[in-house]
Amino acid sequence: MTSEEIYSQLQPIITTYLPEDVSINEINIESDLTRELNINSAHLVDIILDIEDAFNIEFKNDDIEKLRTVNDAVSLIKQKTL
């Protein structure tokens, strides 16, 4: 699975949890999930659970701590789906 394919599947998951004041157009590969997209910690957990379900993978606590940007998520998913 390519990074672009992962990103295209990841984007709708993230979009679900965007606050009303953040537009889908603001999501890009370098977006910081909490700082730029204003995703709170509870929704970040929901995103992680949705990613695990969508890609049939499991994140470890160490992985979750590394998850800051959309690109971090893409990289982790890519590693886990190889």
From TrEMBL:
Keywords: Cytoplasm, Fatty acid biosynthesis, Fatty acid metabolism, Lipid biosynthesis, Lipid metabolism, Phosphopantetheine, Phosphoprotein. The modification O-(pantetheine 4'-phosphoryl)serine is found at S41. It comes from the Bacteria. Pathway: Lipid metabolism; fatty acid biosynthesis. SUPFAM superfamilies: ACP-like. One of its GO terms (cellular component) is cytoplasm. 4'-phosphopantetheine is transferred from CoA to a specific serine of apo-ACP by AcpS. This modification is essential for activity because fatty acids are bound in thioester linkage to the sulfhydryl of the prosthetic group. Residues 1-81 form the Carrier domain. Pfam families: PP-binding. InterPro entries: ACP (IPR003231), ACP-like_sf (IPR036736), PP-bd_ACP (IPR009081). It is found in: Cytoplasm. GO terms for molecular function: acyl carrier activity. The keyword Transmembrane helix does not apply. The keyword Lipid metabolism applies. Carrier of the growing fatty acid chain in fatty acid biosynthesis. Belongs to the acyl carrier protein (ACP) family. This is Acyl carrier protein. The lineage of its organism: Bacteria, Pseudomonadati, Bacteroidota, Flavobacteriia, Flavobacteriales.
